[in-house]
Design brief:
This is one of the proteins that binds to the 5S RNA in the ribosome where it forms part of the central protuberance. This protein is of the alpha+beta class. The chain has 5 helices and 14 strands. A hairpin with a 6-residue loop joins strand 6 and strand 7. The longest helix has 11 residues. The protein is elongated and about 60 Å long.
């Protein structure tokens, strides 16, 4: 959790549908919705320029954001982003209302430490990242920005699973609650080029004479 406070101006919107959303985007706005806390979904819009600046900091995805309406403020987490298929353009944002002390679940990135000094990699092994993110449960305000995995001592043939990762107090790795101790990272022995060529030859289809 960072000490940085994230906020963005927001305004209510009455229109719905694709035509209305396209008009908003032409005007430099991004349609969004705020839901949760047992309240009706609240359609809103954000200034695209300000939203781009906000999203440039990856910490915003695991921290509370204050939506500043003209008459009130709401605290929320980004729940989903809809992106343009080939442009760096946000088409829609889903926000989830949250309050201090409330426990929430969120996808959090996994960051690997000491890759350059990993024992297994230095001895010729190949690093395999089985997971790049994991679902966590934690109180609002205590959500980790990332789950850090130290792989300095990982040897060839070894792996690290979720149950072996230390997490901050109050944070739970959700898969472990379902007895799903996923592999996070491992180091495999590197095959030589000759071995790879031999395997390819053996698996090639046999053609008729």
């Amino acid at each position: 959790m960072t000490d940085v406070q994230f906020s963005i101006p927001a305004r209510e919107r009455d229109g719905h549908g694709r035509r209305h959303s396209r008009r908003l985007r032409r005007e430099g706005q991004v349609p969004a919705v705020l839901y949760g806390d047992g309240k009706p979904a609240n359609p809103l819009s954000l200034e695209a320029r300000v939203l781009r600046k906000l999203l440039a900091d990856e910490r915003v995805f695991t921290n509370v954001i204050t939506l500043e309406f003209p008459d009130r403020k709401e605290t929320a987490l980004i729940r989903d982003l809809q992106m343009h298929p080939y442009k760096e353009e946000v088409l829609h944002v889903d926000f989830l209302r949250v309050h201090a002390g409330e426990r929430v679940t969120l996808h959090v990135p996994i960051h690997f430490e000491n890759e350059a000094t990993c024992v297994g990699v230095k001895s010729g092994g190949v690093l395999h990242r089985a997971l790049v993110e994991v679902v966590v449960e934690a109180p609002v305000g205590q959500l980790p920005e990332a789950i850090v995995v130290d792989i300095a001592q990982l040897q060839v043939g070894e792996s690290i699973h979720l149950s072996q990762i230390p997490v901050p107090a109050g944070v739970k790795l959700v898969p472990l609650s379902h007895d799903d101790d996923k592999e996070v990272v491992s180091v495999h022995s590197a095959r030589t080029g000759a071995e790879a060529d031999e395997e390819t030859a053996e698996s090639a289809p046999v053609t008729g004479e």
